[in-house]
């Protein structure tokens, strides 16, 4: 949200130091405050000219007209400022690698897409990136302000030679012929569209399948989107640049500290197995149920909203709100019951666990663990009473215990959860013999990039996983002489830890002619170590899938060793995951295998939710923390074409797109059943 402030309010500040500070802030490229300079064109011009002085020569008072006239009278001043307009851009090729030189992009936004966020959804913004020594010269034509109700810059008003600005220019001693030269230069240097003719060897390229061939994409970030993130109230982390003026005008105005969206997976840290953790909770609080979720802020806020539904004006609004809140409540009730569900399964495999539950042998929890599936529905009332008792134990939630507005809703969710146990693993006999599901378990990723793109930090890029699977598909097809296709995948994160260290790059050939053996420049990143499962939907002929199912050694051998810039390893030999790479062709038995994954993990699943602004991401996540932003692909900025230096016959500059995924808990997938899993995951 941009805050428009009349310039007069700052001009009335008598303290010169404070006034100068406010003026610098308002004319900074990243500022969320824009000055309305209507009627004060001459003063605005004085300020903008004085901002172009170097730090050591900059006047103490930006309103000093004599110093501004001196600067404008310099024969080289206007030409230096105009020359830097040649490096204005909409997408910064020097971000984050400043070695890309003598190239820029001026582009219209890509076509607007409903499910992803791009520069098409934010106001247009033109930035600069060139020689760091000339960063101050850019402020004359790049700084934005409000003029007659519209967002403008000197580049726009001088380009069209607006009468008021012509008068202001002349009052500073400027000549009309100089202004016409400036106007002609601005029109020449700011065409609507401009792309480089060659691909700089320092620009990244991604080789992707495209129309039965391959295309080389160079991902670029939109300056407008980057600015929107700086102004948003979403959760962020900061990337630091040691030479910010060399990266661009926006990064320079931020002091080299650039915000990126930061939404890592929220996993429970488990030092022991789940059964051991549940038994530890029993010793601590006398109950197996996960009472911690009842004290979470989002759960308390949810109960508050449900208790106020009766005060909403119309019954239709009540129904809509109730439906939305019930879906959130269902997730939390499942988390509360999860220890009971998981211990039931653990007791089937290790009956001796029941001996450690003597402390609750006379409780309904104990009876629930031993009861047959067919009789679990009779525990609705005992568990409902237990839920209310636990709510009454905490100061934050005690006023919700046995609240008459909440009782029907809470009871309904408990009843639904118990009804799902019997049908959770049921699936009809509708298997497709041309479809198989490859389950790769407990893969370990070390030093993978947690920047899915230069806007988002959290999980590695989904595109990186697609690239790995495409390479995997090619290797399997070549080695086994088959023609299978990795059609879709689902991702289950078991463990996650992040790192903010800056890594020392390796030596390689650098310099203008690639003849110098030295290290590349330091670029700060975000990295992560992960343990995860991949479930890959594979399509092919029935005989090819049968051949693949019998080639477990090949499935393991050809798994790529790299993912998202990190090292990808199989489970350790000492682990219990012996058959860690298997192809399943029976969907019911495969879902039973999926149901045994740890309840502490998170599935990364697609969602139908749409977003139209960065702040909307924050609003959605505040209501439901499961929805997080990440990289969801690329949007073409141009028609693909041949370019010198490209890694494929066709090349295209493309903008990274931000979309939402859902971090879904394993308990939800387990309880909502196989059919729901296949529909959501693939």
Automatic annotation (TrEMBL):
<protein>
    <submittedName>
        <fullName>CRISPR-associated protein Csy2</fullName>
    </submittedName>
</protein>
<dbReference type="InterPro" id="IPR013398">
    <property type="entry name" value="CRISPR-assoc_prot_Csy2"/>
</dbReference>
<dbReference type="Pfam" id="PF09614">
    <property type="entry name" value="Cas_Csy2"/>
</dbReference>
């Amino acid at each position: 949200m941009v805050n428009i402030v009349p310039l007069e309010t700052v001009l009335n500040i008598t303290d010169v130091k404070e006034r100068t500070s406010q003026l610098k802030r308002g004319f900074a490229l990243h500022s969320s405050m824009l000055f309305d300079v209507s009627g004060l064109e001459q003063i605005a011009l004085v300020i903008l000219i004085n901002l172009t002085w170097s730090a050591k020569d900059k006047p103490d008072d930006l309103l000093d007209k004599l110093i501004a006239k001196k600067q404008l009278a310099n024969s080289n001043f206007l030409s230096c400022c105009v020359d830097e307009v040649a490096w204005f851009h909409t997408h910064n090729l020097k971000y984050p690698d400043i070695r890309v030189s003598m190239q820029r992009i001026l582009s219209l936004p890509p076509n607007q897409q409903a499910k992803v966020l791009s520069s098409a959804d934010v106001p247009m913004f033109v930035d600069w990136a060139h020689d760091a020594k000339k960063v101050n010269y850019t402020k004359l034509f790049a700084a934005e302000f409000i003029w007659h109700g519209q967002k403008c810059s000197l580049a726009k008003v001088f380009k069209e030679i607006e009468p008021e600005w012509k008068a202001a220019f002349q009052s500073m001693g400027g000549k009309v012929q100089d202004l016409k030269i400036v106007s002609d230069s601005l029109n020449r240097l700011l065409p609507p569209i401009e792309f480089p003719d060659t691909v700089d060897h320092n620009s990244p390229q991604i080789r992707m399948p495209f129309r039965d061939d391959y295309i080389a994409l160079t991902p670029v970030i939109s300056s407008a989107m980057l600015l929107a993130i700086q102004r948003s109230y979403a959760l962020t982390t900061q990337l630091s640049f040691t030479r910010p003026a060399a990266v661009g005008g926006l990064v320079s105005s931020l002091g080299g500290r650039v915000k990126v969206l930061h939404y890592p997976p929220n996993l429970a840290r488990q030092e022991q197995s789940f059964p051991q953790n549940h038994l530890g909770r029993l010793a601590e609080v006398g109950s197996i149920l996960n009472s911690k979720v009842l004290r979470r802020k989002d759960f308390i806020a949810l109960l508050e909203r449900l208790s106020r539904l009766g005060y909403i004006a119309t019954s239709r609004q009540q129904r809509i709100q109730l439906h939305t809140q019930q879906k959130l409540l269902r997730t939390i009730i499942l988390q509360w019951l999860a220890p009971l569900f998981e211990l039931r399964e653990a007791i089937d495999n290790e009956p001796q666990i029941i001996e450690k539950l003597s402390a609750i042998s006379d409780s309904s929890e104990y009876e629930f663990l031993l009861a047959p599936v067919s009789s679990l529905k009779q525990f609705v009332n005992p568990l409902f009473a237990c839920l209310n008792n636990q709510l009454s134990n905490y100061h934050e939630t005690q006023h919700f215990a046995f609240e008459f507005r909440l009782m029907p809703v809470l009871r309904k969710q408990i009843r639904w959860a118990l009804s799902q146990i019997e049908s959770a693993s049921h699936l009809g006999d509708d298997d497709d013999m041309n479809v198989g599901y490859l389950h790769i378990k407990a893969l370990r990723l070390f030093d993978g990039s947690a920047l899915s793109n230069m806007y988002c930090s959290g999980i590695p890029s989904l595109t990186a996983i697609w690239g790995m699977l495409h390479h995997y598909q090619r290797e399997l097809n070549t080695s086994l002489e088959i023609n299978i296709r990795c059609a879709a995948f689902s991702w289950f994160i078991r463990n996650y830890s992040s790192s903010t260290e800056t890594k020392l790059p390796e030596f390689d050939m650098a310099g203008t002619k690639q003849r110098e053996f030295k290290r590349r420049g330091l670029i700060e990143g975000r990295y992560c170590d992960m343990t995860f499962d991949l479930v890959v939907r594979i399509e092919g002929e029935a005989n090819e899938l049968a051949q693949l199912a019998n080639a477990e050694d090949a499935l393991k051998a050809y798994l790529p060793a790299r993912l998202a810039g990190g090292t990808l390893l199989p489970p350790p030999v000492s682990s219990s995951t012996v058959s860690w790479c298997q192809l399943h062709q029976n969907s019911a038995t495969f879902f039973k295998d999926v149901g045994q994954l740890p309840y502490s993990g998170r599935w990364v699943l697609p969602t139908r939710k749409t977003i139209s602004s960065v702040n909307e991401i924050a609003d959605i996540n505040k209501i439901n923390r499961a929805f997080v932003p990440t990289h969801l692909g690329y949007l073409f900025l141009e028609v693909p074409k041949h370019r010198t230096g490209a890694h494929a016959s066709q090349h295209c500059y493309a903008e990274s797109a931000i979309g939402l995924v859902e971090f879904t808990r394993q308990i939800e997938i387990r309880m909502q059943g196989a059919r729901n899993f296949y529909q959501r995951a693939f």
